[in-house]
Design brief:
alpha+beta, seven-stranded antiparallel β-sheet, Phosphorylase Kinase, domain 1, 10 helices, 21 strands, about 450 residues, Protein Transport Mog1p, Chain A, 3 domains, six-stranded antiparallel β-sheet, Transferase(Phosphotransferase), domain 1, globular
Length: about 450
Amino acid sequence: MSQPEAFGRYRVIRRLGSGSFATVWLAQDDLLNYPVAIKVLAENWAHQMDIQHRFLEEARILRQTDSTWLVAVHDVDVLPDGRPYMVMTYADQGSVSDLVNRGQLPLDEALRLLTEIGQGITVLHNHGTIHRDIKPSNVLLQSSPVGQRVLVADLGFAKSIDEASGFTAAAGTPGYMSPEQSIPGGDLDVRSDVYSLGAVAYELITGRPPSRPPVRIAPGRIRPGLPPALDDLILSALSVDRESRPADAKTFTDRVRAIRMAPDLPRADPWWQRYRMPWRRAGVLASALIVLGGVLTASVGTPGQSLTTVRLASQGVSVTVPLVWAKDFHPTMAARPAATSAGAATGMLVATDADHWDDTEVPSYGVYTTVLPGTRPLDGVADTDPCEGTPQERGIALNDWEGSAWDWPDCNGSGAFTSVAVHTEGEPTTVYMEVRQPHHRPDLVDEIVKGLRFS
């Protein structure tokens, strides 16, 4: 399907993805000035009334449950060719599958995600519905004022619990669906979803899905140090005998929550390790992404300070940094929580010691850069407490860049720290930067800002 200009009043921006039954588009509600996702039935199913009924039933379930843990449906309409479409919440941070593919999650975060996924499935069960296709790619992530928010999505295979014994065809995704789902006409109940929750838990904890049933390798054998109660819970959820599984999603979720709240839970990794790539892999990317701009010389830092230009191709942004800082290069480091909540993607860090970038009591000098959608003020994207004390706030108007900076001249005795948010006229994006340097040099920060370029 070629990209349409609009669906009703919703102006189409780009395709988000497509599957066997539908295509999802990112669109803008110009009336309310808000992004939405629009799911449209695929053209080859336009005249299949049973598929149309399933599509509209998904919209009805999501609208009737109206839960914070499920994707919301705001509107439903029909195209001139008869295909229905639904207007839904736009999940701007991708899916749980995307998150898992970036690397092993800290245990606490994996359990948080699992708890919230379980809450969404509990809502469906309380509504009298079995999801039947729970998997990481069907759990979406959205920015919110209080952090990342989980949204269970894609109820294309969902059915009423009352109709469970009347299923005539197998449905679900191999690797995540229960053994009984693979039997046409199988008698299903909510414990089929519990099996899928167990499969998702296995992948969140270990980084890979479980084997075909019966699953015999406990997650703790792949990731040593897990609480025994977590191994027991996941293996019981993945039991071929559904009588051995937790009774429902709520029972499963309550046990996950209790494990997470236990005082002896292994400590989570720092947030900045979440998406960081191993050094050797990052080095390969560095060779592809760093652009040495002739090694410029400017009167910053010490006399004759050499500068180099580094480009992050995925975001189309280049930044000029002192060459002596460019020892570690990480092109996929996560933003701090405030920037992530504001919609920042992963950014790039060039520093003398990337491992201690978040530890402001250990000297590490460099520049972190990421790009956010829209024009945003500094207090909407920056954390207010990376260092002790109140920062010095100043405006920035350099070349075509406008914005503001917060300066901590002495950041916990390990040098100066500066947060910056700037934008250019006509460019609907904001560049957020952090600069750590041995001494408080606002002129060096300004020189770095002036070297910013979009391409």
